[in-house]
Amino acid sequence: MNRKILFKFSFLILFSFLVCGCWGVDGNFKKTRNEVFKALSSEDIKKEFEYSFGGFEIYLASKAASLSDRSFDLEMLLDKISEVQVGVYNVEGVGILTSEVFNPFEERMKNKGWTRLLKIYDHNEKSFVYVNIEDAERIRDVFVLSFETNQLVMVEVHGNLDKIVEQVIKKRGI
What is the pTM of this model? Predict the structure, then answer.
């Protein structure tokens, strides 16, 4: 009888982790995060949340999207994504950020094979968008970093992202 209870308890714990998406981010995401923290040189950085959503969580989101009657095929888009990692952090005590502050971060991204698509520098906002391109036809990863008024957001998306771009262009005529 105790084995049944132990099995049910183990299954419940495993299932709750799968549903909640409470898996930690991977080592590469952490290294990039730490590089950004070092560049910001703040003494007070607090993690709001940091999660990695894998296949099961994306599958559940896809099924929830299929219930929607929207014309845009969100279910198809989610089907092309294999993993999403998200980190949101509160950062206090950061002075004025010049464009040079993020140079070590940008160098790290370049060395890892990422290509910067977008860089926005305003006095209150710093944003970067990078893509990791497998070949001329395939975008496999997107990384977004946004820092605005003491909040840092980092998002990394893995999957068959060129198909998403193709579908957006077809559906939206962009």
Answer: 0.76
